[in-house]
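Hi support team,

I'm opening this ticket because the web form for multi-chain structure prediction keeps timing out on my end. I have pasted the exact lines I submitted so you can reproduce it. The total is 243 residues across three entries, so I didn't expect it to be a heavy job. Is there a limit I'm missing, or should I split the entries? Thanks in advance, R.K.
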Amino acid sequence: MGNFLDDDINKMSTSLKRVSWSAEEDEKLISYIQRYGIWNWSQMPKFAGLSRSGKSCRLRWLNYLKPDLKKEEFSKEEEESILHLHSLLGNKWSAIVARLPGRTDNDVKNYWHAHLKKCSGKQNLQVCQTVEQDNNNSSSFNIQEPTCPITNDISSSRCTTSSEDQHGEFRDNYTDTSSQGTTFDDLNFFWDQLCPFENLELRNTNHHMGMLSDHVFQDSNYDPISSYTSCSDDYNGSLLLDP
DNA sequence: AAGAACATCAACCGCAGAGTC
DNA sequence: CGACTCTGCGGTTGATGTTCT
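Hello R.K., no limit was hit. The queue was backed up. Here is the completed structure from your submission:
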C-alpha cells in the first residue's frame, strides 16, 4: 500500500493532469527495457531518464509498447471469446486476456464496455442475436480453454495464485506429472497458451531467476522481443545489472 | 459551420496479494 | 511476525475523435 512513492511526486508535478506518452518517452522506455530488461518498475524510470512513475511505465509497456501486442481491431472470433469468457468468468479481465494472446486487459475491458456490454443484457437482443446463437452452437464455437495439466482445472486459468509459484511448481512436479501422462512439453504448451510473453519478464527479473526452470529459458526459438534486434546482443547479458 | 452529444481509448487510482527484510 | 515494498488487477476518468443536430 502506498507504493510507487514517486506517484506522489508525479502527481504534484503534473497537477493531477493526464499526460500522454510522447514518442520520445516511448523510445526511452523501449530502449531501456531492450538493454536492461525489466528488473524493478519503481526504480526503472529514474535510470531510464523518465519523469514517470514506475506504475505508469509498467502500464505503458504492458498495454502499448510490448512487441507482441495486436494493434488490429478485435476479430469476430475474439469478440465471441470475450462474450463467452465473460459469461463464465465475469470481470476477470486478466483471466479472459490469458485466452486472447496479444490483447491486454485494458483493451478487452474497453472493448467490453464499448461494444459488448449491451450484449450481456436484455437490451439490443437483436443486435447481438447472431453472437448469442454462435455461442449456443458449440460446434462452431472454438475457444481454447487451457486446462491446468496438474489439476485438470478448466475453471481457473491459474493452478496457483502466482505465476512464479506455478513455474516453480512445474519444476517440482515434473516427474509426477510425467507419470500421469503429462509431459513437460504439455506444461510448456499450457503456459505458452496462457501467457506467451510472461516468460520474458520473468527471465529479466532478478528475484524470479532462481525459481524458474531452465527449460523455460532454454527455448531459444522463443524471443518475443525479437522485433527489437538492435540491442539483442546485450539484453541477455546485462539484465540484472543496474545501469 | 458550430456546438452538443456520444464513443473510444489511454492513463490513472486504489486496493490486495505476495515477497522480502 | 509485522512492516514495508513491489507488482498486478479491476474500476474509473480525462482527452480526443466522431457523429449528430
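A quick check on our side: Chain A has 13 helices and no strands. Let us know if the file doesn't open in your viewer.
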